[in-house]
Amino acid sequence: MILDFDGVIVDSIEECLVVGYNAAMQHLEKPQRITNLQQLPFEQVNRLRRLRNFVRTGEDYVYLCLADLQHRQIANQQEFDQFIAENNAIQPRLRQLFYQTRQAFLMTWPEQWLALNPFYPGMEPFLSMQNGNPHCLILTTKQLPYVQAILEHAGLNFSNERLFSVVKGSGKLEVLQALMQKYAIPANRIHFVDDQVDTLIKTQDLGVNLYLATWGYVNAGQLAQAREAAITTLSGDYYAQPGEILPVLPSLNHSV
After folding, report:
1. Which end of the chain is more exposed for a tag (fewer CB within 10 A), N or C?
2. d(CA 54, CA 61)
3. Any idea what DSSP says for residue 235?
4. Which residue range(s) make up the domain with 106?
5. Domain count along the chain
């Protein structure tokens, strides 16, 4: 069993938007900084939350905030990807600003930073049951020190051998391929849960079992993509049934 982190295990949108907004303002050389989303207008926060499901990596939040600050209309994944492509030249700067801002936030206000990264309902006790399970892994685009900080704060024991982060220039497909080769794991024994349908579609050729987590920010269009690609969706209304995921995932514990 391999789980994504942001959007599957934790709801990191508030932390990512605070960091992304501050990084965008720094890029634009504007003085305003925030420590929580309540410091922004309600309408602006709603717009930013609506765009969350197009995000793939950390610096995408800076692009998201830049698009909003520049009044760029984004209606779907393709338009968001086009905005990123148009601003590709500043990607190294935005990436640096995002991670510098996140590190400064964590070092200066650790309790506030951790509070902005809450676990989805049911996830913390579920992961507690996986503390000693070597076949429960985490695969994320988040840098691992931040993942470890959140897990350790919750008393969850995940060794570095069970945590995998996508490095620049690769994706989750490449990490999954490497894991399959290193440990000689048959594809049909791998169960991969992610909240980005594009990521899951890209990994279909591997032949692993794929699941779209729908309790985060998946929209109707992405659900339709999952159905068209015959990808299983987990928990249609997670907040109405907060324990629904628990009977589903432990049944996969015999596999990776």
Report:
1. C
2. 9
3. -
4. 13-115
5. 2
